[in-house]
């Protein structure tokens, strides 16, 4: 049995079928890139895995646990043990970098001193320990990407979902962050599911590529 | 989904229960009692009302007054809103806020101001003021800001890029006609419907200017004759009209939410050589509709003796007004915020419909329902305390805070909430750590708007305040019968200051480049 099993999942928005009878198996610690043109259903599939959307049909299992089944989310997003980096990064603008990272640990009731240590360590890993008191708008685009990545990883999720987070960066920064991401993935051994329509990102990150078209795996 | 979802559901049901207790139950009781007579179903009250010689003329007067007010407000408010939003008219921001002043005061203040003017000019003008013409003039001054501000919001909401694309091919008049106005038409039409409903339910101005309309009949049956059945029967047509208006609103807007955000100015109407003329017209309008009547009203108000007399006669009412309005505004802010947050993704149409129906229902109708519902020995802890008044305010104005909050939420990217969920945060954690801090400006706006509306309210204050516990607008109305004009003027000045302070704060809180509402 695979670590993540997506079984004949469908999702429609009104009349439009966005994900259509899609099945997919993902192994633990794999770096899967979902690749395809805009509107092919990649982001919706990612959101279904995260629990932010509920499948109309089919089921999703993570680590042998049924998390979603026809029209129902058995396990809400906050209980799925996964992190996500959004396309717009979604850094909370009223919080500092440190507060952005600590928020998830507080929610999971991690002790204060441990949370502080983990935040420092994660910021060190992404090279931003000197920016912990900055607000998101005071950071460069590349720094914001790293904070979003650090925020998603600091609760130590077993799965990291990334929704085209590098699309707004130039090639040089893209390569630098991809390299950091690969290094973090080898250290922390999380399963990476990465959505993009950019062939270059696929080449940089994928251990397996899954081509999508019209809501299905091509 | 575990505990978090249950907390959300419980809070949502509690909020809906507050709306139901404050607004829906009184209306339901009122309608029920109008058709339930001596233990059986009866339409006697309606038969008597419809067959009474005075009903149809009063109904006709109400509709005529509302139509005339809406027409005048539309003819002035729509161009004003467009020019204030899109043109290079000088002093447009100041003019807009000045024209808004009559709306934040109790409606009868402008009528009182004009009556002072008339008293000085002579009796011939009195005939004109005390009747249909005077009512239209006063109500147009009072409700003009609604159309002006909603038009301002609607045209500001049009994506500037669409207008700029149009400007590459056409001059501004064509872009305004073919792009801006069609895209903002639903919002403008909604403002017209809203003004019609508010004008048809208005009590204090027609009452003061002695123009017979249906709300006055309903109030008289209630307050003077203690005939609840007849008062209710007279109120139900107004409630039905309000419901019709809300249905039209739903069809027009389909629950579109206004977000007053800055997405590029887009179209700029350059008035060129018309600029001084337009400025003069709007300047004169401001003088005629706002400055002239209010100056006349406040002319006698500044003497220390009269101010002292006013404080002695109504000092407690002033304190009560501020306290009740502040309490109601706090409840309304919290209720609107929670309702908007909880129905952001689901149930928004229903909540919008219910709250807007309660907003559109005249205060006289709602007050009769509240008195009928709570006037029993078992519920005297509500009926004989300010709680009844606060319930009335809550029902009438929760649409305002709900919509303001909703507009604020639409400016917060959904991914902020999703990121917090994935971080493991519960609903309450997301509410207090993400939504509240990011909505502080919206919350301030909602509180101030609710405070102003409660403070200026007349019918609910007049009909639901406990004996000896009347707020200032009701107290002034009572004192007008036998109080000295300078003392009344001083009371009006105090009331105006209490209302205008939050308006000034509101003008500062809402930045010129983007507001939510």
Explain what this protein looks like in three dimensions.
- The complex is a heterodimer of chains A (218) and B (517).
- Chain A is of the alpha/beta class.
- Chain A has a domain at 93-155.
- In chain A, the strands form 2 sheets. Chain A has a 6-stranded mixed beta sheet, sandwiched between helices.
- Chain A is 33% helix and 28% strand.
- In chain A, α2 (97-107) crosses α3 (112-125).
- Chain A has 6 helices and 11 strands.
- In chain B, 78% of the residues lie in helices and 1% in strands.
- With 517 residues, chain B is mainly alpha-helical.
- Mean pLDDT of chain B is 85; it is low at 512-517.
- Chain B has 24 helices and 2 strands.
- In chain B, a hairpin with a 2-residue loop joins β1 and β2.
- Chain B has helices at residues 3-35, 44-51, 55-86, 92-104, 108-121, 123-129, 132-157, 160-167, 172-200, 204-208, 214-223, 228-253, 275-298, 304-342, 348-360, 363-374, 380-383, 387-409, 414-422, 427-438, 440-456, 459-464, 472-479, 485-509, and strands spanning 36-37, 40-41.
- Chain A binds chain B through residues 50, 52, 73, 76-80, 82-84, 86-88, 90, 92-94, 103-104, 106-108, 151-152, 155, and chain B through 1-2, 4-5, 413, 415-416, 418-426, 429, 433-434, 437-438.
Q: How widely separated are the two ends of chain A? A: 22 Å
Average of pLDDT of chain A: 92
Q: Tell me the overall shape of chain B.
A: globular
How would you sum up the major sheet of chain A?
6 strands, mixed
**Rg of Cα set of chain A:** 17 Å
Q: Note poorly predicted spans of chain B.
A: 512-517
Query: Helical residue percent of chain A?
Result: 25-40%
Q: Order of strands across the biggest sheet of chain A? A: 7-8-9-3-10-11
List the secondary-structure elements of chain B in sequence, H or E. Answer: HEEHHHHHHHHHHHHHHHHHHHHHHH
Which of globular, elongated, flat, extended, rod-shaped describes the shape of chain A?
globular
Gap between N and C termini of chain B:
33 Å
Q: How would you name the CATH homologous superfamily of the largest domain in chain B?
A: MetI-like
């Amino acid at each position: 049995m695979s670590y993540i099993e997506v079984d004949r999942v469908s999702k429609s928005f009104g009349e439009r079928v966005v994900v259509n009878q899609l099945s997919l198996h993902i192994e633990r610690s794999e770096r899967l890139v979902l690749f395809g043109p805009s509107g092919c259903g990649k982001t919706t599939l990612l959101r279904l895995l995260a629990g932010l959307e509920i499948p109309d049909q089919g089921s999703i299992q993570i680590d042998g646990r049924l998390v979603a089944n026809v029209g129902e989310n058995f396990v809400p997003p906050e209980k799925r043990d996964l992190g996500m980096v959004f396309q717009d990064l979604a850094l909370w603008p009223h919080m500092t970098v440190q507060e952005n990272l600590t928020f998830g640990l507080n929610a999971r009731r991690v002790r204060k001193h441990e949370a502080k240590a983990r935040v420092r360590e994660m910021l060190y890993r992404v090279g931003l320990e000197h920016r912990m008191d900055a607000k998101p708008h005071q950071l460069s685009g590349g720094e914001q990407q790293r904070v979003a990545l650090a925020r998603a990883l600091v609760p130590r999720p077993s799965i990291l979902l990334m929704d085209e987070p590098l699309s707004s960066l130039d090639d040089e920064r893209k390569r630098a962050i991809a390299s950091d991401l690969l290094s973090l993935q080898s250290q922390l051994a999380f399963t990476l599911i990465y959505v993009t329509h950019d062939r270059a990102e696929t080449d940089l990150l994928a251990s397996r590529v899954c081509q999508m078209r019209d809501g299905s795996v091509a | 989904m575990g505990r978090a979802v249950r907390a959300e559901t419980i809070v949502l049901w509690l909020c809906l229960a507050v709306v139901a207790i404050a607004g829906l139950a009184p209306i339901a009781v009122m309608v029920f009692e109008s058709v339930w007579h001596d233990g059986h179903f009866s339409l006697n009250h309606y038969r008597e009302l419809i067959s009474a010689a005075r009903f149809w003329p009063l109904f006709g007067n109400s509709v005529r007054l509302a139509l005339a007010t809406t027409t005048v407000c539309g003819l002035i408010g729509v161009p004003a809103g467009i020019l204030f939003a899109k043109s290079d008219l000088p002093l447009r921001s100041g003019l807009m806020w000045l024209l808004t002043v009559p709306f934040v005061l109790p409606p009868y203040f402008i009528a009182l101001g004009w009556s002072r003017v008339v008293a000085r000019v002579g009796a011939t003008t009195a005939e004109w003021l005390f009747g249909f013409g005077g009512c239209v003039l006063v109500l147009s001054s009072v409700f003009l800001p609604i159309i002006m501000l909603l038009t301002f919001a609607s045209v500001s909401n049009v994506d500037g890029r669409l207008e700029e694309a149009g400007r590459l091919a056409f001059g501004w008049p064509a872009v305004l006609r073919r792009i801006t106005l069609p895209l903002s038409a639903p919002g403008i039409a909604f403002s017209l419907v809203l003004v019609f409903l508010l004008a048809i339910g208005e009590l204090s101005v027609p009452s003061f200017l002695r123009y017979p309309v249906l709300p006055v009949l309903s109030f008289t049956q209630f307050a003077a004759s203690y005939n609840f059945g007849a008062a209710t029967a007279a109120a139900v047509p107004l409630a039905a009209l309000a419901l019709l208006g809300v249905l039209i609103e739903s069809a027009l807007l389909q629950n579109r939410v206004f977000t007053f955000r800055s997405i590029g100015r887009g179209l700029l109407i350059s008035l060129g050589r018309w600029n001084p003329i337009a400025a003069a017209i709007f300047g004169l309008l401001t003088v005629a509709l706002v400055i002239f009547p209010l100056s006349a009203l406040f002319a006698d108000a500044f003497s220390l003796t009269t101010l002292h007399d006013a404080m002695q006669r109504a000092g407690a009412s002033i304190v009560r007004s501020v306290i009740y309005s502040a309490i109601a505004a706090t409840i309304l802010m919290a209720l609107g915020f929670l309702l908007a947050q909880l129905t952001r993704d689901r149930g928004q149409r229903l909540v919008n419909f219910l709250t807007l129906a309660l907003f559109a229902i005249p205060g006289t109708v709602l007050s009769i329902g509240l008195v009928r519902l709570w006037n029993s020995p078992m519920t005297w802890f509500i009926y004989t305390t300010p709680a009844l008044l606060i319930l009335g305010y809550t029902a009438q104005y929760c649409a305002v805070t709900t919509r303001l909050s909703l507009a604020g939420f639409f400016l917060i990217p959904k991914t902020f909430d999703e990121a917090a969920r994935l971080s493991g945060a519960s609903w309450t954690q997301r509410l207090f750590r993400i939504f509240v801090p990011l909505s502080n400006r919206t919350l301030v706006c909602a509180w101030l708007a609710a405070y102003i509306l409660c403070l200026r309210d007349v019918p609910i204050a007049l009909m639901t305040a406990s004996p000896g516990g009347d707020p200032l607008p009701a107290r002034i109305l009572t004192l007008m019968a036998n109080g000295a004009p300078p003392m009344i003027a001083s009371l009006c000045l105090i009331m105006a200051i209490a209302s205008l302070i939050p308006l000034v704060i509101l003008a500062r809180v809402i930045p010129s480049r983007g507001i939510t509402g």
